[in-house]
């Protein structure tokens, strides 16, 4: 028999756990499951959308922030001149109802909607754009993506402090509804750029009043489809519909909860339990992909990013182009994508990813062991004799290690070349690649806008993102020439020539094409896979009748996926 | 007594200073910096960021300025999270971690001590062996195994509790259980050992000889000394448990303090790391002092000097 005090304690604990059970939210249980979907498929009550936004954002000031989680919050709150179509990402009128371009492609005139206001009722004018863009460009702004505004005349000089007069920067607001932007050179993708969050307007009256705390929920004022109702550090954002948004009539969601969950397993659990309706791309362990592929709520699309190995060409032996070519020809990309990545990524031999209308890719790097050995002999190392031991750097990650080990084995097998693997944590890895303190390094690039220039401009001489030491006059000239070319087809042809030149000189070797992998519940409408993984939330809504629709669609013999 | 406390508090100052100095310089030895990114920050923006945060000053100057501010409890702004002072990040995270840890600690004591006492009273019986085997298992199963196992069965299988997040009483159950289990087991083992030691002593025999009921002997006289090992263990354990478990907070997506130490170091968020380390150190020292004070209450033989 237990002593009385102990019985009391045990009874209390039992009562506590029962109480906790009683407080448990109304779990819908196994009845809400469906064989074709991963986990619970009962929609939330009302027009409420819940998703995992990923890592805790560093900032959601649209002018200053960077990265996908930060960008998703900024895009929910703020809207630029144009907004992306949720399927194609092509620009549609946003805060600007229309725009015109001068014949020389240098002057863009945007007609800003009249009669619109910020979420606090303050009138919205074209001047808000001018002020916000100059704020990003001010040398002291610390904006991570300020260089995205460089196509604007004198923007770069102003940002670098070489030019002090802000009136010389090519943006003017002659009246409340007109914004005139003058560019350095014709930039056919400029309207596309204005959809990036760095180009979004910020409320001057709030920014000036609250300084760097202006984005707090108690202060922030926005102009997009949603306003920020609450934020808890490391936990969640809550957005509600902005009744003053110009297109509020077409926004169906009442509320959005964006959780900041960075653990991928936890994210998958929350989705399976029906706590969240969308994982966002990559927000579950990549090993799940082969299993999840069988479910209808798994969405897969090509993402505008390339995974590649980069050579430090500034010192021997990798200053030898034949050695670089040999190493690339000995990489079996198909095998990596098939066996290691289980088809979650596509093998890719080009720098620029796919998905640019009108862009014809030059032939990419391929796997050809015989040519690889021939190149190695031309490099002066017949049969791999005399190649010093090389070092391959990657940032610490199980996936990167597996790929590195596979490539290490391929080079040993095909070329008799030895590499040692070296992994460093993120900060040290960035330092090493930036300072060219490496021989071969794993790297990746994700495009900012839908144009090959977002990839090719990285590798011009001296660009901060080049990080290979590669400098090629032919390549630089081609990229510069494309920037001056008005004819769209001609411009893309020149860019393709530049990519061909880069692939021929091989300062980098492409390995795979990124893809988006997300889980989205069948009752969620308006989320499509897109090349930039951007999803304007104003188009999202919860379809409470999805089962009926699905049944109807099935009866009509139509594919289930077409409803969204 | 007061003099003792004052002396102990004063002794914390050089310790904290040493910890602050070591952390400060070790952080700076790590390659890279807070503003290094996969995508280059343009030169002028980078310079301005470094100026804003005082990183352009000589290192000794930065160090002295940091000490002067830290002495006032101001650790400066986080380098990573724009517009968020480190002290605010710590305060917000600590509230959550402390709640989680507080519950776990409570469960550890409320379950661990009785289990230990039962095992001691039934020494070398099936009850004792059974309880101690369970305790051994509890200590041995790491929480990164226990947590997902609990989620898989009780949440995704039986739908009793949410799988993660920190909202409502039900969301507390699984993380508290995950965090507490190892401590329950450890407290039970310590209590058992302490009780066995105490129950063999002369004053217990005297108490029994006086004709006191067994309950009084065990709980009034025995337990008081028997839990001493638990008390000295609880000081540092409480600091560890309350400051946040990175693993449990990550598995259950709890917005606590645990993650900021590790992520701060990866991000080279100098101010955040220094703030969390110093806060943790001070907290640990205060708890140790409290443990020593508690000793004098529980064991009349202990005197503070």
TrEMBL record, chain A:
Residues 90-466 form the Solute-binding protein family domain. PROSITE patterns: PROKAR_LIPOPROTEIN (PS51257). It comes from the Bacteria. GO terms for cellular component: ATP-binding cassette (ABC) transporter complex; cell envelope; periplasmic space. It comes from Eiseniibacteriota bacterium. Coiled coil: none annotated. Keywords: Signal, Transport. GO terms for biological process: peptide transport. Its main location: other. One of its GO terms (molecular function) is peptide transmembrane transporter activity. This is Peptide ABC transporter substrate-binding protein. Residues 1-22 form the signal peptide. The keyword Protein transport does not apply. Gene3D superfamilies: Dipeptide-binding Protein, Domain 1 (3.90.76.10), Dipeptide-binding Protein, Domain 3 (3.10.105.10), Periplasmic binding protein-like II (3.40.190.10). The keyword Nucleus does not apply. SUPFAM superfamilies: Periplasmic binding protein-like II. It is found in: Cell envelope. CDD domains: PBP2_OppA (cd08504). Belongs to the bacterial solute-binding protein 5 family.
Automatic annotation (TrEMBL), chain B:
It is a multi-pass membrane protein. The keyword Chaperone does not apply. The chain crosses the membrane at residues 9-30, 100-121, 133-161, 173-191, 270-291. Residues 94-295 form the ABC transmembrane type-1 domain. Gene3D superfamilies: MetI-like. Pfam families: BPD_transp_1, BPD_transp_1_N. GO terms for cellular component: plasma membrane. It is found in: Cell membrane. PROSITE patterns: ABC_TM1 (PS50928). One of its GO terms (biological process) is transmembrane transport. Keywords: Cell membrane, Membrane, Transmembrane, Transmembrane helix, Transport. Its main location: membrane. Belongs to the binding-protein-dependent transport system permease family. This is ABC transporter permease.
């Amino acid at each position: 028999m237990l002593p009385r005090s102990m019985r009391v304690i045990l009874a209390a604990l039992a009562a506590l756990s029962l109480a906790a059970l009683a407080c448990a939210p109304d779990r819908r249980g196994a009845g809400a499951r469906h064989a074709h979907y991963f986990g619970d498929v009962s929609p939330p009550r009302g027009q409420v959308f819940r998703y995992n936004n990923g890592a805790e954002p560093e900032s959601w000031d649209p002018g200053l922030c960077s990265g996908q989680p930060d960008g998703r919050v900024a895009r929910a709150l703020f809207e630029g001149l144009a907004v992306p179509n949720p399927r194609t990402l092509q620009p549609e009128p946003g805060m600007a109802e229309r725009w015109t371009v001068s014949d020389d492609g240098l002057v863009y005139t945007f007609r800003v909607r009249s009669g619109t206001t910020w979420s606090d009722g303050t009138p919205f004018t074209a001047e808000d754009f001018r002020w916000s863009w100059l704020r990003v460009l001010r040398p002291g702004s610390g904006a991570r993506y300020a260089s995205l505004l460089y196509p604007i005349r004198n923007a770069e000089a102003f940002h670098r402090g070489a030019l002090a007069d802000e009136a010389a920067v090519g943006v003017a607001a002659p009246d409340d509804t007109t914004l005139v932007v003058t560019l350095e050179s014709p930039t056919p993708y400029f309207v596309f750029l204005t959809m990036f969050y760095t180009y979004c307007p910020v409320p001057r009256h709030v920014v000036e009043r609250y300084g760097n705390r202006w984005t707090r929920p108690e202060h922030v004022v926005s102009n997009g489809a949603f306003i920020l109702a609450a934020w808890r550090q490391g936990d969640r954002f809550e957005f509600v519909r902005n009744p003053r948004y110009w297109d509020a009539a077409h926004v169906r969601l009442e509320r959005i909860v964006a959780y900041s969950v960075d653990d991928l397993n936890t994210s998958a659990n929350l989705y399976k339990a029906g706590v969240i309706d969308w994982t966002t791309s990559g927000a579950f362990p990549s090993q799940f992909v082969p299993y999840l592929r069988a479910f209808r709520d798994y969405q897969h699309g090509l993402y505008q990013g390339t995974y590649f190995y980069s050579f430090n060409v500034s010192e021997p032996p990798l200053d030898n182009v034949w050695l670089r070519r040999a190493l690339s020809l000995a990489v079996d990309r198909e095998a990596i994508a098939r066996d290691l990545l289980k088809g979650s990524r596509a093998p890719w031999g080009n720098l620029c990813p796919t998905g640019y209308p009108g862009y014809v890719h030059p032939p990419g790097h391929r796997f050809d062991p015989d040519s690889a050995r021939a190149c190695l002999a031309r490099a002066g190392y017949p049969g791999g004799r005399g190649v010093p031991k090389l070092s391959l750097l990657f940032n610490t990650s199980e996936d990167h290690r597996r790929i590195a080990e596979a490539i290490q084995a391929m080079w040993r097998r095909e070329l008799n070349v030895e590499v040692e693997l070296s992994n460093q944590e993120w900060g040290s890895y960035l330092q090493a690649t930036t300072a060219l303190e490496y021989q071969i390094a794993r790297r990746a690039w994700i495009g900012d806008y839908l144009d090959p220039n977002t990839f090719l401009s990285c590798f011009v001489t001296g660009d901060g993102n080049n990080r290979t030491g590669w400098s090629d006059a032919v390549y630089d000239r081609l990229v510069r020439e494309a920037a001056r070319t008005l004819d769209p087809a001609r411009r893309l042809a020149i860019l393709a020539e530049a990519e061909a030149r880069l692939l021929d000189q091989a300062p980098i070797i492409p390995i795979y094409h990124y893809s988006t992998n997300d889980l989205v519940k069948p009752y969620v409408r308006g989320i499509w896979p897109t090349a930039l993984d951007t999803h304007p939330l104003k188009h999202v809504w919860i379809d409470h009748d999805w089962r009926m629709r699905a049944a109807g669609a099935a009866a009509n013999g139509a594919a289930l996926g077409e409803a969204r | 007594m007061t003099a003792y406390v004052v002396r102990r508090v004063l002794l914390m100052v050089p310790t904290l200073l040493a910890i602050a100095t070591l952390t400060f310089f070790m952080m700076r030895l790590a390659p890279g910096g807070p503003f290094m990114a996969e995508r280059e920050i343009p030169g002028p923006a980078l310079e301005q960021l470094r100026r804003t945060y005082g990183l352009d000053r000589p290192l000794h100057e930065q160090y002295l300025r940091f000490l002067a501010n830290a002495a006032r409890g101001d650790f400066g702004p986080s380098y990573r999270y724009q517009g968020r002072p480190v002290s605010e990040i710590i305060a917000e995270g600590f509230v959550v971690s402390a709640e989680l840890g507080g519950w776990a600690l409570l469960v550890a004591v409320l379950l661990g001590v009785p289990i230990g006492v039962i095992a001691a009273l039934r020494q070398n019986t099936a009850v004792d062996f059974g309880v101690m085997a369970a305790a051994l298992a509890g200590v041995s199963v790491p929480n990164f195994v226990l947590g997902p196992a609990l989620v898989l069965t009780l949440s995704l299988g039986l739908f009793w509790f949410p799988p993660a997040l920190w909202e409502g009483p039900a969301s507390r159950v699984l993380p508290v259980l995950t965090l507490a289990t190892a401590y329950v087991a450890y407290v039970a083992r310590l209590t058992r050992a302490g009780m066995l030691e105490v129950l063999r002593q002369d004053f217990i025999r005297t108490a029994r000889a006086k004709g006191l009921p067994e309950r009084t002997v065990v709980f009034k006289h025995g337990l008081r000394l028997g839990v001493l090992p638990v008390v000295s263990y609880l000081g540092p354990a409480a600091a560890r448990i309350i400051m946040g478990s990175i693993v449990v907070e990550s598995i259950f997506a709890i917005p606590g303090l645990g993650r900021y130490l590790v992520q701060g170091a990866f991000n080279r968020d100098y101010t955040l790391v220094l703030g969390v380390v110093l806060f943790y150190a001070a907290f640990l020292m205060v708890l140790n002092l409290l443990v020593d004070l508690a000793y004098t209450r529980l064991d009349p033989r202990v005197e503070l000097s």
